[in-house]
Write a structure and sequence with these properties.
This protein is an all-alpha fold and about 100 residues long. It contains three helices and no strands. It has one domain. α1 packs across α2, α1 runs antiparallel to α3 and α2 packs across α3. The chain is elongated.
Length: about 100
């Protein structure tokens, strides 16, 4: 039971990291004119990605200002997600070592 909870949390974090990466790539392609946001499909994809990531990125954007016009909130959230994955792995290991299975 404990394994399944930690596995599920890890997979949710992994999926969110993939969505973060997709959002970053999408925004770069849009900024360089490769994607046209006037296209309905492109707009919908961008809207879904924004709706998935904005609740997490917006508070970080308020706390950390842009550096030279570059938004580093993505990097901070990405690193926090990876750190949380490492923490959960360590916590699971400690709980197993303590005999809580």
């Amino acid at each position: 039971m404990l394994y399944s909870v930690f596995w599920f949390l890890n997979e949710i974090l992994e999926l969110f990291i993939y969505v973060l990466i997709a959002t970053a790539i999408f925004s770069w392609l849009e900024a360089f004119g490769v994607l046209d946001s006037r296209n309905r499909t492109v707009y919908k994809i961008g809207d879904v990605l924004d709706r998935l990531t904005n609740p997490v990125l917006a508070p970080v954007r308020r706390l950390v200002p842009s550096i030279g016009g570059i938004d580093i909130s993505f990097i901070i959230v990405f690193l926090l997600c990876r750190a949380l994955q490492i923490f959960l792995g360590g916590l699971y290991g400690h709980l197993l070592a303590a005999g809580l299975n």
